[in-house]
């Protein structure tokens, strides 16, 4: 019985590793990690293109490009990294660089997700500084990953949380509150996903489940951006009905 159980464990989940080491997914987990983000590459490209074609001015077009690059970049980099990590042979250096890129791109994805709200909504005189502060935060996070990758995992998680919540204070204080509930719902999905992000070796397919929470959170935020920032007012009124 115990032998059978251990065999199943090694198929669907490896043992948890020490804090300073990287978890090695099983073959099944590798496949799930690749698939759960690869599936969203084409939808993210189509969705980003849709926002660009709905743009009425330069600021909307620029914001669509920024958001689209962040959204597509997240899924593409993640998929490439997990594919190389799964099928690697002698690509240790490439895998390491892609793993760093996979972590770095999350910061820019967060900044890009806020860009349409910060660029297209009315902001107060102090709140407007968040338009560039969010990119400084993303840059600081990138530098942190470059120098301390995989060393202080709890600090890394804390950086993501701060990066995700700090700009939200500005968005939530905007005079126009349309889309706020969708933003909150997406944020809740990301936070729930973090439980699985730190659960490799405890929950089978934990990282793939985290990927799904990211996809659903991103989808919720995309819907809010599409509906409240880009959808023409006449169509928006129909959707509201």
Short description:
Zn(2+) binds at residues 82, 207, 211. Helix content is 77%, strand content 0%.
Describe this structure in words.
- The structure is a single chain.
- The protein is an all-alpha fold and 241 residues long.
- It has one domain: Rhopdopsin 7-helix transmembrane proteins (Up-down Bundle).
- It is 77% helix and 0% strand.
- The protein is built from 10 helices and no strands.
- Helix 3 packs antiparallel against helix 4, helix 5 packs parallel to helix 9 and helix 8 runs antiparallel to helix 9.
- The termini are far apart.
- The N terminus is likely disordered.
Explain the layout of strands and helices:
Layout: H1 2-12, H2 27-38, H3 41-54, H4 58-87, H5 92-120, H6 130-148, H7 153-172, H8 180-197, H9 206-230, H10 233-240
Helix pairs in contact: 2-4, 2-9, 3-4, 4-5, 5-6, 5-7, 5-9, 6-7, 7-8, 8-9
Binding site for Zn(2+): 82, 207, 211
Family: Belongs to the ADIPOR family.
Protein name: Monocyte to macrophage differentiation associated 2
């Amino acid at each position: 019985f115990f032998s059978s159980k251990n065999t199943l464990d090694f198929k669907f989940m490896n043992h948890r590793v020490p804090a300073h080491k990287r978890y090695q997914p099983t073959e099944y987990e590798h496949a799930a990690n690749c698939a759960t983000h690869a599936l969203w590459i084409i939808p993210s490209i189509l969705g980003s293109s849709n926002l660009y074609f709905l743009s009425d001015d330069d600021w909307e077009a620029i914001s669509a490009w920024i958001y689209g690059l962040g959204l597509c970049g997240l899924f593409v980099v993640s998929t490439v990294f997990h594919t190389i990590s799964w099928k690697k042979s002698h690509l240790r250096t490439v895998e390491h660089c892609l793993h760093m890129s996979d972590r770095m791109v999350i910061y820019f994805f967060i900044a890009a997700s806020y860009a349409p709200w910060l660029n297209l909504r009315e902001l107060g005189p102090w709140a407007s500084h968040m338009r560039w502060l969010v990119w400084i935060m993303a840059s600081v996070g990138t530098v942190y990953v470059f120098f301390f990758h995989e060393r202080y995992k709890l600090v890394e998680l804390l950086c993501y949380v701060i990066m995700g919540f700090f700009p939200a204070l500005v968005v939530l204080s905007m005079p126009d509150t349309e889309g706020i509930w969708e933003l909150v719902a997406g944020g809740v999905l990301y936070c729930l996903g973090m439980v699985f992000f730190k659960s490799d070796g405890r929950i089978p397919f934990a990282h793939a489940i985290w990927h799904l929470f990211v996809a659903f959170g991103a989808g919720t935020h995309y819907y809010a951006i599409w509906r409240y920032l880009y959808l023409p007012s006449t169509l928006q009124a129909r959707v509201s009905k």
